[in-house]
């Protein structure tokens, strides 16, 4: 099986060393390089062709924001941002930019590793804290203009629980129905909204205001 190539760009020594160790100890990953300065990121991406660029990010740094945008526009790799930021005004621009994954430095090792694997497959991954940040200001999403959907009341209920991070078994228990029923609802929701995965569903729901408080 081909290993997932990961390029790390983190400007803080301790965090960088921790990420290096995390990637190196897993057989499914291959560390393709480490970048310590912002000016070397784009060059390394084009040289190494990593499956994932795992990059440190500070929301008040316009240079990093511009650099991230360049990397995304180049389509040379998938970007997973790791950040200390927990304010929506810093997170939402990353979504608008097309960043595939966002995790915080408070995430567990397993969550970060899952994020790397998901993003390498061109699948979005946002950790629970990032989803919480977006959900804290749901009212702003309701201003987004979108086409009406024909989801049933039960499908809306399932959608909201999915968006809040509940697993299938948890949703089934809460709604007092079978796991098979929840899977059927999820399939119908994805089909009606023309989406391919639960992660896309979460992002769509947040950005269009389908999620209700």
Which terms summarize this structure?
single chain; alpha/beta; Rossmann fold; Arc Repressor Mutant, subunit A; 2 domains; six-stranded parallel beta sheet
Any idea of the CATH class of the largest domain? Alpha Beta
Which class best fits the helix and strand makeup?
A: alpha/beta
Query: How many domain modules?
Result: 2
How much of the residues is beta strand, in percent? Answer: 5-15%
* Assembly context of the chains: single chain
Could you tell me the CATH topology label of the largest domain: Rossmann fold
Overall residue-averaged pLDDT value:
84
Q: What's the overall geometry?
A: elongated
How much helicity do the residues have? Answer: 40-55%
Query: SSE string, helix = H, strand = E?
Result: EHEHEHEHEHEHHHHHH
How many DSSP helices? 11
What is the rounded distance between the termini? Answer: 44 Å
Largest sheet report? 6 strands, parallel
Name the CATH superfamily assignment of the largest domain: Response regulator
């Amino acid at each position: 099986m081909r290993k997932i190539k990961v390029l790390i760009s983190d400007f803080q020594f301790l965090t960088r060393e921790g990420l290096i160790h995390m990637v190196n100890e897993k057989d499914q990953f291959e560390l393709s390089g480490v970048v310590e300065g912002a000016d070397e990121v784009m060059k390394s991406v084009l040289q190494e062709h990593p499956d994932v660029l795992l990059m440190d990010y500070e929301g008040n740094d316009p240079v990093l924001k511009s650099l991230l945008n360049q990397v995304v526009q180049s389509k040379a790799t998938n970007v997973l941002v790791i950040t200390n930021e927990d304010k929506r005004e810093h997170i939402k621009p990353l979504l608008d930019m097309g960043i595939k994954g966002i995790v915080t430095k408070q995430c567990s090792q397993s969550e970060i590793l899952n994020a790397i694997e998901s993003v390498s497959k061109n699948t979005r991954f946002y950790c629970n804290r990032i989803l919480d940040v977006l959900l804290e200001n749901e009212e702003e999403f309701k201003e987004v203009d979108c086409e009406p959907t024909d989801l049933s009341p039960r499908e809306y209920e399932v959608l909201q629980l999915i968006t809040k991070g509940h697993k299938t078994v948890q949703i089934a228990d809460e709604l007092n129905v079978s796991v098979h029923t929840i899977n059927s609802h999820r399939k119908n929701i994805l089909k009606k909204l023309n989406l391919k995965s639960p992660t896309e569903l979460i992002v769509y729901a947040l950005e269009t205001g389908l999620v209700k408080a």
